[in-house]
Amino acid sequence: MPAHPVHPAPLPARLTAVRRTLVMGVVNVTPDSFSDGGRWFEPDAAIAHGRSLLAAGADLLDVGGESTRPGAGRVPVEDELVRVLPVVRALVADGAAVSVDTTRAAVAEQAVDAGAVVVNDVSGGLADPAMRATVARLGVVYVAMHWRGHADVMEARTDYDDVVEDVRRELADRLAELAGAGVDPAQVVLDPGLGFAKQGSDNWPLLAHLDRVASLGRPVLVGASRKRFLGHLLAGPDGVPVPPARRDAATAAVSALAARAGAWCVRVHEVAGSADAVRVAAAWTGAGTAPDGPSDEDVTT
Ligand code: PMM
Description:
It is a single chain. The protein is α/β, with parallel strands linked by helices. The protein is 39% helix and 12% strand. It has an 8-stranded parallel β-sheet. α6 links the parallel β5 and β6. The site of pterin-6-yl-methyl-monophosphate has 18 residues, from β1 and β5.
């Protein structure tokens, strides 16, 4: 992957000027997300949370009104709109670059109308037949994630011959379907969908081979934050996974490694650690690619 990631288009100039992996802070306006369920459910709490993520260094804020926690049921579209739109409007008014986390074309459309600049669709266009044409018409950046079904069924859809190649092929199919609906490939970001229709052990080869997803020619987003596979990795001798709130240091480690591997963006709940991590990775990568590397005078203790 390139020394610093190529940005999708169109994005605000202040983001395209950034020469490192971006950090997307998560604002879940839901009562039941696995990582922070209910904490920011009231609009004012969600807006205040978004502001605190910006202060911690988020480049983008991802506002979502429907939980994708394994087993979660669907939220009526009216409820999703009521949750998401006031939060998008307020954060856009603050000057934030806002992404809307939705699988529904109607929510994407109204959020973009309210100022969102990215549509983040965990279904990669599969959940709503109107999504592709809507994204083509809106012309915004679109994150297409690897997905095999809604939260109520995804745990039963984890069969792979070779998880990396199978996910790559299915993402190539999404990209072709989007192009067929008139979406400019320049708009599209691809995401391997960590934790979605994946067994815990499937997530590590996907992280280790982000270059295979990137070989489809589009920027890559990584969403590892606080996910269950990190909880299992960090389990003590009793085998009990550490809870989501104790997975932030591991998340920042993934952010550093994903950035070093050329990821365009990391999507995280706790921003400060990953904001540091992507800067470390950029300095590391830049030092590795500079003709002479850092000189002695640059080194301080
Ligand atoms: N993960 C979640 C939600 N949205 N979007 C993208 N693009 N990639 C992800 O991995 C992703 C996502 C689940 O996490 P949450 O419920 O804590 O937000």
